[in-house]
Amino acid sequence: MGNFIYSIFGALGYTHPFHPVLVHLVIGPVIAAFLIALAGWIWNRDAFLRTARHLTVFAFILWFFTVFMGITDWQHFMGGAPVPAITAKLILAGVLFLLLLATILVNRRLPVSSRIPIIFYTLSTLTVAGLGYFGGQLVYG
Fold first, then answer.
1. 116: CB partners within 8 A, 6+ apart
2. For residues 95 and 89, what is the distance between their CA atoms, to the nearest angstrom?
3. Residue ranges of domains in the chain
4. Quick one: pLDDT at residue 67?
5. pTM reported for the whole predicted model
6. Could you give the angle at the alpha carbon of 26 between the alpha carbons of 23 and 30, nearest 5°?
7. Helix (H) or strand (E) holding 36
8. DSSP label at 71?
9. How far apart are CA 124 and CA 23, in angstroms?
């Protein structure tokens, strides 16, 4: 599957990995959910808290595609070599999956005005910061 995707895009002149482009589709909404929820908490705006919930669902959906392409890139460009930074990223990606799922489930049970989800938004933001760190280690380390 991966080779098919890379051969099509390679024929068009795009020979780079896809994962570095896609990570922003997960990291952006996770950080935005944290910041918007924080603003909603500070200014007592339920609309902001609702937006944070929507962003979490968006990040959760795109998590699957981003992780799939990360693993595909790793197999294609690195032959699946046991690289410590990738091992850390795989673990943190699993943690992020659990945090996003927990956030969605908690948000379904609590009223929009609840401040409890800010804990999950914070933990998710710290997790994507760790993912970004180890991604940077792969590129610049």
1. 106, 110
2. 10
3. 18-140
4. 97
5. 0.93
6. 135
7. helix 24-43
8. H
9. 14
